[in-house]
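From the pipeline queue, job 12 of 40. The input is one protein chain; the requested action is below.

Action: predict structure.
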Amino acid sequence: MYYVMYNVLLVLAFPIIIGLLLTKKRSQRGLWCRLGAVPLELRNLQKPVIWIHAVSLGEVATIVPLLQAMKQQYPQWPLVVSTVTETGREVVIKRLEGVAVHCYAPVDYLWAIDRYIRILQPRLFILVESEFWPNLLIRLQRHQVPICLVNGRISSRSFARYRWIKSMMNEVLTCLDLALMQSEHDAERIGYLGVNPNVIRVTGNMKFDQGLEKGQSADAHISFRSLFTCHAAEMLIVAGSTHPQEEECLLGAYQKVVVQHPQAVLVMAPRHIERVAKLEQVIRQYGLSCVRRSRLGQNIGERVVSRGPRVIVLDTRGELAFVYREACVTFVGGTLVPVGGHNLLEPAQWGRPVLFGPHVDHCRDIAGRLLEVGGGIQIQNQEDLASQLIRLIQDPSEAEAIGQRALEMVRTHRGVIARNLQWIDQLLNRKNSASLSSSTNGISSCTSQKVLR
């Protein structure tokens, strides 16, 4: 009943959906592809393909090392990555060139979904984290395409919504042939919503393995410290993926920091780059000098950085993870406001102390592990943030020790990609698309993964 109602509402909402896609500039590109017009590039691919769906920048960045490994392991099958956002597309183009082909995800209409399935002829469909589109999953199952969820998670907010439509979610989630979850908590939630316990595996968070790829290319990257600072005594405080309101808290805290440490420079990377102009206005309202990263060029000779306390706004994509490396202390945004938090592992992988607020629903497991080993500090408000920043700047040895504990925690939990590949390989090599429960007896599990039963 819920599924029928869902499709009726989708049809009725068609003019509204088209209107929204047309009015949002970032959604206009690829509009016809979203409605089922499969691009010629995809039509010309060798079939079948492995289809991976990742919503946006964060999800695509997470799976980059996995797809690189899959390209080597399965060179006979082209990899197609679909995204919803333009930022997701940019990551595919820049970081997966020669590995995967990009396409915009079709809107969840039956005609669009069926057209993509018919033309792509997917050998396997991989879903990243938590994007459960009913028609997409149900039609894939009816075409006998194995479906694998990787890096699966169910946030508290999503779980509360899904419980209201548990019957429909049960019908949708039973389509999963394999659910590789980030944590036991996520596994329990998805099991409650209807996934067969025999197909659920807790393999960990793939973000732990992102550092491997970054580490390989970091030495070739430009020196951000030479661009952002005027002399060796200056220290960078890097605040990444920030949102409104918490940015005001950061600026207020920074004003207190520079009273005691005028050599401190704040680097702010707003979560949404289109907000940069507004953020600049807010920074100037606090009486602080600011400059955009894009105006600093690539070489030391192109610097236009003024001296003294200032804020550098990171208005470029794909550089934040490397900028964290240059920090003496870091803050990860989306945590002082009820967003749920962003990637705490990006600064941790460089051995930097990680500060974050109380709102960590999207990264609760990682936040808990950082706190447990003493590699992260949870702050509650602006005053708390200022005092911790001042303390760590005054005591660099303590900051170094906290950062090293964070790094060791990351190293301890790596290996998620290898575990996921083991299960994906099992799914790909099955002779038919029967449910995983009929074949789990013959599968040997990794010692570090836990099977929920």
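Job complete. The chain has two domains: 24-212+416-451, 217-412.
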